[in-house]
Amino acid sequence: MNWAVADVVGIREETPTARTLMLRVPDWKGALAGQHIDIRLTAPDGYQAARSYSLSSAAGDPVVAVSVELMPDGEVSPYLVRGVSVGDQLEVIGPLGGWFVWRTEQTEPIRMIGGGSGVAPLVSILRTHIASGNTAPVKLLYSVRSPEFVYFRDELAELTEAAKAEVTLQYTRHAPQGWTGTLGRIDAARITAWAAGDAPDTSTYICGPTRFVELASDALVATGVDPMTIRTERFGGA
Amino acid sequence: MGIITPGFFGKQREADPKLPPGQYETKDFPVLSAGPTPNIHQGEWSFTITNESGEKTSWTWDEFMTLPTETVDTDIHCVTRWSKFDTTWRGVSLDTLFENVETSAGYTMAHSFGGYTTNVPLEDLLDGKAWVAFEFGGEPLDPEHGGPARLLVPHLYFWKSAKWVNGITLHDTEELGFWEVNGYHAYGDPWKEERYYYDS
């Protein structure tokens, strides 16, 4: 596998601090839901910087999507969120990663917990699951600070509306007007209540900041969930 | 060198000879783990080396603590592209642990609590190149970073430094471990950028 020159064919402002880039990658042969790509930028003097971004597009989508959250002190994300335009080219390599993935032949129920931008690979799994016609239950608990920072907001609402997936939003700072759910950081009790009644063979995918993933996975293990059925992806320091 | 990205100039302007290709420096200590962090008490920790004929050499935590330790100052490089400079560890050299192990095997598999594995050639564990570390920055090693003890093989990408390590088995032929089966390179030299299985 080599670096490929991808065309930026679409850009959506996802939140005030994040953008989704739609990329057409030459000879793209599909991905597994949950995989990532690396994006590499090259300065005029040859200096390069590369970072990994989870795909949010469904496994079979011919155009791949990554959502990039602006890291204020970042090196690559400011360029991708503020500098890139449709028609630009970016070097990418992938798809990458063979563990934090969901395969269409999996038949067990799926439970996913996402924190902030960590929802991206989970949305890929959700989209792939629905596109595959898989009838096993799939649910997503998505922790986000306030309504304007919800990734894929309309799509997630539509999926819930159409009863294709159970999507539960957990607002940590501000909830929308008329919100009847809980407000505040996710804690063990919240996760335990949300997961109560799930089938024992449910597979779990958790992605988010390190502390968030630690808390969510510990809470599930404490309720008796087999650690080997929990796949995690963490970002940020600890 | 790839295509020039118009308008991109980067931050890390000085080429740092300590930084392997494709890496960036971080001051954080990110966490790469496949699943939940296991909570292993020292009392239930033990470490076992099993040679190719099945002979075992084991240490309990208390026995392990009587072994000579070394302080290791090193840079570490994660396959997910971050590098962290000047980290300080304390642990027991694998040379010490292998002192009385009879083997003519060339390959090892490190095993961890929770069932994770990673494969490392034996020569990469010996001659002052690897430790079982139980302190980081002068403090007991945090569980999310592999505590109570992890393998430390800093000249390879850091997934080879198996967290929650509880043993090493010796093998005549190379087998692939957990991360290697799941897409990472069999050897993982950061200076050759051996990240993924197809980076031959």
UniProtKB/TrEMBL annotation, chain A:
The keyword Cytoplasm does not apply. Keywords: 2Fe-2S, Iron, Iron-sulfur, Metal-binding. Residues 1-102 form the FAD-binding FR-type domain. The keyword Iron applies. InterPro entries: Cbr1-like_FAD-bd_dom (IPR008333), FAD-bd_FR_type (IPR017927), Flavoprot_Pyr_Nucl_cyt_Rdtase (IPR001709), FNR_nucleotide-bd (IPR039261), MRET (IPR050415), OxRdtase_FAD/NAD-bd (IPR001433), Riboflavin_synthase-like_b-brl (IPR017938). Its cofactor is FAD. Pfam families: FAD_binding_6, NAD_binding_1. Gene3D superfamilies: Nucleotide-binding domain of ferredoxin-NADP reductase (FNR) module, Translation factors. It comes from the Bacteria. PANTHER family: NADH OXIDOREDUCTASE HCR, PROTEIN RFBI. This is Ferredoxin reductase.
Automatic annotation (TrEMBL), chain B:
SUPFAM superfamilies: Oxidoreductase molybdopterin-binding domain. Residues 35-179 form the Oxidoreductase molybdopterin-binding domain. Residues 1-25 are annotated as: Disordered. It comes from the Bacteria. This is Sulfite oxidase-like oxidoreductase. It comes from Herbiconiux gentiana.
